[in-house]
Specification:
The protein is about 35% helix and about 25% strand. With about 425 residues, the chain is an alpha+beta fold. It has two domains: about 300 residues, Zn peptidases (Aminopeptidase), CATH 3.40.630; about 120 residues, Alpha-Beta Plaits (2-Layer Sandwich). The longest helix is centred in the N-terminal third of the chain and has 42 residues. The protein is elongated, with a radius of gyration of 24 Å.
């Protein structure tokens, strides 16, 4: 293409993207009552990973009402909606996760969760403590907006409502099962976008090219001692004491044994279980936790150190330690070229409140889609003005709170990411 024709194509492309963005802005207010209602309904009726039957039914019903091709039971309880635009073009995917957590809610809301469940033999509440209720509601809102202007969409938008994101550390990731069930096929998207609410200032959009979230590996250490009477500890080998020493020893890996100036890393022991009575030293103790890194070489280094420390400390006390580290989700890696391409969209939607952020040691199985197709994942701030983002309750806390004033930003962001990507992927042909 000659330079004049190329300039003409680019000039023609910009007004189309701008016009579509203006149309999104015009339509978003009309769907917000529904978005808030969906969010509150889903929040009040949370479902654990793999059990998102009610949520999936709500999603599928709405997508069908919008006239989309809808696929249910994808990867378990996943739902996929396909919106074919009125103009030819490419395919882009938007993804939201649907599952809640075994957390007892402590936020005093009229729509707070009162759902209970049994986990590891203990009764606990079920709560959308990670904000997936808002993700579903915002993507449903974007589906509403885009369906209402389908005749002007240059291509196809594929809406992915995923189960079991929170199970990604257990080997039952919803992204894994959806990919196996063909979520990235028929039609195959050339890009995928997602967002996650986070305790940044309400409405702030935080992005980063490259690694934005860590990989997540599962850690399980079983310490084998020798059972004895609690009053006669010398008659056995106490695995509780050994486990305690191992926990402290593992903390030196990050603080003293790897170069923290090179890359962040986390080694966390989150559970310790052993024993049945106060006067019986148990035969064994089981610890579980997580390892988070951004670098494959550091991951292998940490794996070796965890095994050596646990086994050596156990041996020094006459015990043994079995160490099992399972591979979980990879690094959530934002394609640099795609991120730069979509940066103007982020800045426009966030109205000057789009921020280049630091990597987070949280993890996401959105990374599995990114291994198959270029993808971009961003954070959306939901901390109200009355709270300090630095001290606000984090995701997975029973006091996690999402300010609904962020929801319109999320709806606009998802809608515009899809439209701008398709518009840039399908520039109009210049007139001869």
């Amino acid at each position: 293409m000659s330079l004049p024709l190329l300039l003409l194509a680019l000039a023609a492309q910009q007004p189309r993207a701008t016009t579509l963005a203006a149309e999104v802005d015009r339509r978003v207010p009309s769907v917000m009552d529904s978005v808030v209602a969906w969010r509150r309904d889903i929040h009040e009726h949370p479902e654990l990973s793999g059990e998102e039957v009610r949520t999936a039914r709500l999603v599928a019903s709405h997508l069908q009402a919008l006239g989309m091709e809808v696929r249910t039971g994808v990867g378990g309880t996943g739902v996929v909606g396909i919106l074919k635009g009125g103009r030819p073009g490419g395919v882009v995917s938007l993804r939201a996760d649907m599952d809640a957590l075994p957390v007892t809610e402590e936020v005093d809301l009229p729509f707070r969760s009162r759902v209970k469940t049994i986990v590891n033999g203990q009764e606990v509440g079920v709560m959308h403590a990670c904000g997936h209720d808002t993700h579903v509601a915002m993507l449903l809102g974007a589906a509403n907006v885009l369906a209402s202007m389908r005749d002007r969409i240059p291509g196809t938008v594929k809406f992915v409502f995923q189960p079991a994101e929170e199970a990604s550390g257990t080997g039952s990731s919803g992204a894994t099962t959806m990919i196996k069930d063909g979520v990235l096929e028929n039609p195959a998207p050339s890009a995928i976008f997602g967002l996650h609410v986070f305790p940044y200032a309400v409405g702030q959009v935080v992005y980063k090219p490259g690694g934005i979230m860590a990989s997540s590996d599962g850690l399980r250490i079983t310490v084998h001692g020798r059972q004895t009477h609690g009053a006669l500890p010398w008659g056995g080998v106490d695995p509780v004491v050994v486990a305690s020493q191992i926990v402290l020893g593992l903390q030196t890996i990050v603080s003293r044994q790897i170069d923290l100036t090179a890359t962040p890393a986390v080694v966390t022991v989150a559970t310790i279980n052993g024993g049945v009575r106060a006067n019986i030293i148990p035969d064994s103790v089981v610890m579980t936790g997580t390892v988070r890194v951004f670098d494959e070489a550091i991951k292998q280094n940490i794996r070796e150190r965890v095994k050596r420390i646990a086994e050596s400390i156990a041996a020094s006390a006459g015990a043994t330690a079995d160490v099992v580290i399972t591979t979980g989700t990879p690094v959530t890696y934002n394609d640099p070229k795609l991120t730069e391409q979509m940066r103007p969209t982020l800045e426009r939607v966030a109205a000057g409140n789009a921020v280049l952020g630091a990597p987070s040691t949280t993890a996401e199985d959105f990374s599995l889609y990114q291994q198959k197709v270029p993808g971009m994942f961003v954070f959306l701030g939901v901390t109200p003005d009355s709270a300090n983002p630095a001290t606000a309750a984090r995701n997975h806390s029973p006091r996690f709170f999402a300010d609904e004033r962020a929801l319109p930003v999320g709806v606009r962001l998802l809608s515009n990411l899809a439209l701008d990507y398709l518009a840039n992927a399908n520039p109009p042909r210049p007139q001869p």
